[in-house]
Amino acid sequence: MLRAIFPILRLFFLRKAEIVKPRKILIIRSGAIGDVLMTTPLIKSIRSRFPKSEISYLCGKWSKEAIETNHDVDKLIVFDDDIIFKKKLFRVFKLVKKIKKQKFDLCFILDKSYLWNLFAYFCRVPVRIGFDRFGEGFSNTHNVRYDGSKHEVDYYLDIARLINAKVYDKMEFFVAKKDVIFADKFFSRNKLSNVIGIAPGGAGNPGQKMFAKRWPKGKYEKLIEVLLKKHDIILFGGKNDVEITREILNNLRNKGLNNKILDTAGKVNLKQTAALMKKCKLVISNDSGPMHLAVAVGAPLIAIFGPTDPKRFGPRKGVVLRKKIKCTPCYDVYGRFRKCEDYRCMESISVDDILANIRR
What is the pLDDT of residues 133-144, one digit of tens each? Predict the structure, then answer.
């Protein structure tokens, strides 16, 4: 019902604003680690277009690690994700006030929701560039049309073209020297070689648990059981993945598999995870933050997709495994899944499918 009045609301907002050389730029992107990492090509474009501007990035605590080492960002503004997903309006108003005081000249709203577009409007940023998802960009001064028909990164590159910036299409994650040293010592201390990294969790994002994107735990166990014959294994994940990685590790040890399988979930930070991934022969992951991290650091990758569309979220390089099921993809342009009882799209991907691609 609300979407029906977007065209009317558009009439109440002043849309004419010239994109001049800004002194202060704000980039807004809430969401998960992968959401933020996919904005990194645009960040590089913005920096190349406005080399002397101060660039600030607004994101939630959940995803701040994905951007805090980025060389093209001058300042990071972090908010508690709960103020959005639990609708803590008073704290939202406080955030608006905080942003307003900084007097930004130009804002890039990389969320698609009209609520974030309005947020930038109430922050009194004069030039607001964002997305128009079926009318939701009514409060922006400049828009790129968004309908979910192509890769997320390509939409960000459309914004780069809109501001006449040089286009970069490679995701980036900057790994510091201290984290490279950490990874080298980790491999040396544990006498690791021929390592395959596996991220069986993920998809437990702030405000939305999307466990339908996970390949079944039992299949990961069977896959690792085979891989341990020739490879050492590192399990990757965040603090929300500790349960699944611990179960996998314990189940394998109960089978007498005492080979080199190391569980780093919840024990190392994102920067250290990135450094470890760079040293892996291969990373295997669901559509999740670790998948995007592997892409950003250039690790060889096998990505397992089911309800989400790899044309929108998949890696540019690497192997994408996905079965053609009539009902997939079922993750829509508004970030909603259709109700599903059997998750055939993930269940139908076999251990042999993964192994066949490893042997290539």
Answer: 999 999 999 999
User: 193 and 99, same structural domain?
Assistant: no
| Residue 295, helix vs strand vs coil | helix
Answer yes or no: are the C-beta atoms of 333 and 147 closer than 8 Å.
yes
What's the CATH number where 240 sits?
3.40.50.2000
Tell me if 170 is assigned to some domain. Answer: no
**pLDDT per residue as tens digits for the range 186-244:** 999 999 999 999 999 987 776 677 788 999 999 999 999 999 999 999 999 999 999 99
**What confidence tens digit (pLDDT) does each residue in 257-306 have?**
877 999 999 999 999 999 999 999 999 999 999 999 999 999 999 999 99
φ, ψ (nearest 5 deg) of residue 283 = -120, 135
CA gap 237, 249 in Å, rounded? 13
Residue 90 exposure: Cα atoms within 13 Å on the Cβ side: 0
C-alpha neighbours within 13 Å on the C-beta side of residue 121: 19
Amino acid at 190: N
252 C-beta neighbours (distance < 10 Å), count: 20
- 123's tokens: 């922050």
For the full predicted model, state whether its pTM sits above 0.90: yes
Residue 280 corresponds to which amino acid? Answer: C
Separation between Cα atoms, residue 47 and residue 178, nearest integer Å: 26
The torsion region of residue 124 among left (phi > 0), alpha (psi -120 to 50) and beta comes to left
CA dihedral for 56, 61, 64, 66, sign (positive or negative) = negative
- The verdict on 8 and 132 lying in the same domain is yes
